Every structure is written in C-alpha cells, then in structure tokens.
Amino acid sequence: MSIKINYSNKISNKSLSNIVLFCNEKYNINGLKNYLSNSEYSYINDLLKTIDLKKSLFVFDINSKKKIILISIKNNLKTSDFENLGAEFCKQINQGKNKEYFIFSDTISGKYDNFLGYFLHGLKLKSYEFKKYKTKKDTRIILVNIIGNKNKPSIQSQLKFKAIEEGTFYARDLVSEPGNILHPDEYAKRLSSLRKDGLKVNIFDEKKLKKLGMHALIGVGQGSIRGSYLVTMEWNGAKNNSKPLAFVGKGVCFDTGGYSLKPAKFMEDMTYDMAGSATVVGLMKNFALRKAKINAVGVVGLVENMVSGNAQRPGDIVKSYSGKTIEILNTDAEGRLVLADALTFTEKKFKPKFIVDLATLTGAIIVCLGSEYAGLFSNDDKLSKQIFDAGEKVEEKVWRMPLHKNYDKLMNSKNADVQNINYVGGAGSTTAAQFLQRFILNKTPWAHLDIAGMAFSKYGGALNSGGATGFGVRLLNQLVEENYE
Questions:
Q1: Which one is catalytic: 91, 190, 262, 400?
Q2: What is the pTM of this model?
Q3: Is 190 a catalytic residue?
Q4: Predicted confidence (pLDDT) per residue in 26-37, tens digit
Q5: What is the tally of structural domains in the chain?
Q6: Where in the sequence is the domain holding 178, given as residue range(s)?
C-alpha cells in the first residue's frame, strides 16, 4: 500500500464518499453543517450523544458507499500529537478497503501552526511497509485529497516533510534488508548512488584502510569473505566554510558475535546491527533533499562479523587509527572497535563542530531503558541538552547516562592501552561509551547514542508499523534545524 497526497480546488462534498472532517475536543459539530446533509448531521449528532468521546477518531458509516470520519483536535496539543493523529488515521485507512479519501482542511480550527502538515507527515510515516520480498504484494494506491483554501502546508513545508520521510524510509529500507543481500560490498555500492542527490561520497576499501592504519575496524571484518569499508558522505549547504556537523554510524551488516558466538535465538535479529549507520545515511540523504543550510558529514564503518579460519580471536591485540592499542577480550564487543577508528578519523580529518555517533551497541541499554529511550552519553552539556530537547519534540526520546573517569579502570588492559569489554561486570553501556570517549582525542563536543532498543520494533510504535523504525533521522534533523541552521 502506498499513499499519495493530492491538493485539490474547492469542490462540493455532496457526492463524495469517505470524507474526513475535524472538530474540537468536545465533538461540537455545529460548524460542520456546510459539509454534511441535514440527515447526516442529525444522524452523527445523535450518535455522539450516546458514545464515549475519549477517542480522537470516529468512523460513521452513512451507507454502503459513504463514510464520514470525524477527528477531534484537542486543546494544548504538541506537534508530535498532530503526527500521532495522522498515524491513527493511517490505521483506519489500512483497515478499510477504500482507495480514496477527502480531507476538508477548512474544518481545522485552533491556532496550531501547520497542523495539517504534521498530520499528513504522521500519516506517511505510519504507512511505511517493507514488503520487497513478498511474492504477493499490496499494490493499492490510496489517494488522499486535501480540499479547501485554508490550513494547507506551504510548498516549502511539504518539501521539508518529504525529505524527512524519504530519509527515514531509506534508513528503514537498509535496516530491513537481510544480511545475504545487504553485506558490506552491496552497502558501499548503494551509498555511491547517493551522489545523485548531491552528496560527495568517498569509499575507503580495505586496501586504503590498511594504509590509514584502521586495524580496529579491519579486525572486526577479517573473518568475512566480504570487504570492510569506511564511507564518508559530505553535504556542503552553508554559504561559508564553517566547520561541519559530524554524524558517525556503526554498520555491522551481520553480527554472529565472532568466536564469542551469540546464542542462536538472538542471532536472526543481527541484520539490524547496522542501524546506526542507516540513520546516518538517511539523515544525510534528508539534508541533501531539503538542501539544508549547513555543512555536514556522515561517516559509516561497514563490516561483517563472521567466524572463519581468519576471524579475529579473543586475546588478539590491534592498533587503532588513533595509535592506541586494543586488547580484544570479546569478539562480540565489535561495534565499539568500528566506531573507535571512525570517530578518530572523523575528528582528525573534518575537525567538526561536534560529533554524534549512533550504534546498536549494547544489550545492557535495553535492560536499562527498554524500547522507550535511547541511551545518551556525552562530554558536552550543551550538546546533550540540545539532543534531549529535540528528542522530546519529535518523540524520539533519549535519556542521559553517566560518564566518569572512575569507569576507566574497568576498561584498562594489562597487555594493551585499553580492552574492549568490562569483565568485572555491570555498567555495560557506560563502559562501552567510556571506551569510545578515549578515541575523541581533541576534546571535540561528542555524544554517543546507544539505540539498541530503538532501532527495531517487533510490535510497532506510534509512527511505525513494526520492524525497522529509522530512529534518529527525525531526532537529529530536529537538532540541526532548531540549533544550527
């Protein structure tokens, strides 16, 4: 199923089926008399007196060919509430067999800024499905017509929402692909196609990575027959040479755990261990599509963590791009190795204003925060607050967790500069973040988002229907739009 939005001139509603009207939170429909026949008005008004009005959406079957959908706009709503109403409307569309709806924008009341734009944005986000490998596909095209002269989103607003949707959907598509299709070789190839959107894309293959000295990243992927890559995507949308905003993502296309093998029942989900990188890619695509007035760079490390005669062993010691040596005590703590080289490279090469990295890094963050918040770790209070506030606004929430020098002793190695896991026990997410912080060498403002509980939803959320969520694209777009454009 796909949804197409069409903006139409004012037309009569008398012959239309499946019309959508808005009213206030008390379901007062006196102002809707021009949109309903006398009999329809009386019928709906009588029914409203007999039903519990706690819901925000009601469907009234007028006859076999006509439905009237009534949506209440409550007082004191946030923009995320507008999106959630759109998602609720999407569920109604999904349940029905109708292929065309008519929304009367003039019935929207209240002093909300761009209500309809956010409503339609929520509708589109909720409509996403990944059915690429289904032999029987839902080919329905649902046409949603916007009728009226008032409350329509501006062209600029429409383009902005479309860019965010395409970036989010691209991220969801990447996460949804199976590991046999989206291995590092294919992933790098797909990213090269983003040049057509206006991004400058550079792909560092294994030969170049070895020359650079990125042995932490290479070590993770050395057991796979696939290559390992670091890919940079640059967007130069500012009119000056200001420092770029940097976003770094973990791209472990499949994670067996290596020789520290994962249990079988958890392994099938490890196709989404590249979700951090997918968010970065979707975000950069969004910046290019909406021509964001910033300079930004996205950096992703793409590897596959497999078991073979050439795979990394527990006890190995590797030298990272930073020059620091790392003792590998657990080959399933691999994402931090990929990020270690990517973070130092990003800081050294691009000298960014800040760095935000995203990774499905630890199961411990799910134990702590479940699937409601991503874990936020940072060396900068200002950046942390900006990310937190952006998350509250778009309902991609984060919760700040501690970093402290006292945790360093848990990651100090007897044989190298640092070990890749804390074997004393406890503080799994914090010690992972503490490990990453060691590879920020020049005190660049940095934030780490552990999105292990947020990247994939088996049950669906407010704006997704289950599966890959694209978490982080909207959050970081809001961060940039609100503070840096």
A1: 262
A2: 0.96
A3: no
A4: 999 999 998 999
A5: 2
A6: 160-483
